Amino acid sequence: MNEAAIRDLLAADLSVLEEGMELVKIEQYIPKSLGTRNFLDILAKDRTGQWVIIEVKKTNAAARQAAHEVFKYVDAIQRYFGVRKDEIRAIVASVEWTELLVPFSMLRNETSIAVEGVQLLPDIFGKSLGIRPIEPVQVDQGRYLAPWHELNLYNDEASLKRGIASYDHCCKAKGIDNYVLLVLKAADDFNEKASLALNLALQQIAENFGDGAPEEIPIHFRQFDRFDYILYFAPQILSREFCLAVLAQHPETFEEVQACTEDMDTEAELCTLHENLYDFDPCPHRDRFEIGYASKLSQKLLIDEEWTIERVERRGTFARNTLLSDKAIIEELKGATGSSRQSFKRSVSFSNRAHIASAKEGLTEALLTNPAWLAQIKRVLDEASAAWPDGSARINLFGPSSGIFTLYYIATEGSDSHLPQYEVAVFDAAEQLVSTYFGLLVPDGQPIALQPLLDKYYKGRIGDLMFLASAGFFETRDADVMDDLGLAYRTFRVDNPKGAAKYFALKDDRWRPLSLTVPWQPLQPYFDENSSLINEIVSAIGSRMHAGFHDMS
């Protein structure tokens, strides 16, 4: 069958695409002055009355042009028939998809109209068509480090060098070309502090679970391995298809992974595929291994344990991109792009629409568990860009999404290191600070008691709550937990912060004047009024935290 015959067969029964779809015209004429090749394959309408552009292809050679043609036809239909983009849909229908899949996926990613893809399956007699929906692949959006990392510890410099060489060998064997290796050096007293903390934790566990009285249990301090270096590994995010192709080299592993990921959502599946690919032979040399993630690098390693970054080893695109600074790579590894879902940092120019769109995408990822702040910050960006179109903004967000642990750490550490907060500093064209928007956690309603909270979210068990410790204390239901704790994520604004500042609170979708004292501590009344709840949380969690060990029983 040639392309025209396939087109006519499809036009004769558009219900194979969708029930209620009606043919408007085959070979719909479009004036050449509108930049098209004159005739659209099929023009139809769906049961809601929307226009449907259907582009039909047969061979790979013809399919390569389909995505580009759809772009042109959407614009032409808008101008020729006087319709809006939201009144148009497009369907790319092709027999062959080998050459078309990537440009179709890019089209889906770049256009604001609804675009679908279907593979046409003609029967051997050319009398009927079957279809198979096409799922777009993840298209290359430039630099984007995978949020799933490997943390490797080494006893000395010689072992570290061997580790770096082994990573290069392993990545080459697996076809991973683009990755970074962060080299960290231990603080002078790290090993002594770590050994002491571990021994004290073991002693505490022995006292809590041993048979004898605490004073009868002998203290035996053990010597542990010394670690002087960390090699922190992260590749550019890999596609699902790439991971599966590499894992398919080991059929048994491949079948296990497929069975394991069958019911997972897209992100969980991609995480599992990356982790299995990391474990796939050959594996790099290391003296000790841990799972790495953004908050662990930014908080535990660099702040709590005081590791210092010696250098960034770059491979592939990261080595070729000479404009990319080591600082930018480190910030991305720490989750500043939003991939950690806990932090986001970005400077944007309001005159650059791509800056704003990219920032909103990063914020959407960073605030997946916090819809309140996501909506509020997007409003802030729209409002500020309209008021200062030639200005800029600096965004700094920290949203740990740690639920009950947020209150625990605020109460026990007495600092803002675990306090959710954000700031959007707005500058005019002369780079003068004109306004500051900030987000805080504030009291909002009466909290429920700890046990009902455990019953609702953790099967009534404190041990189930402690399992969050294995995931960086990240609680996907953070917004709901905070609501039950009588807390809410709110946004505030300061106009003329360098002069006679005026304060406003965003409430019921309106900015309302706010009188406040400086410094302002909105959570202090909450802690004062709910001291029994705070004490109960500190006691329940604190009794199960032992120098980095977390009792999950």
UniProtKB/TrEMBL annotation:
This is Endonuclease NucS C-terminal domain-containing protein. GO terms for molecular function: endonuclease activity; nucleic acid binding. It comes from the Bacteria. Residues 3-95 form the Endonuclease NucS C-terminal domain. InterPro entries: NucS_C (IPR048301), tRNA_endonuc-like_dom_sf (IPR011856).
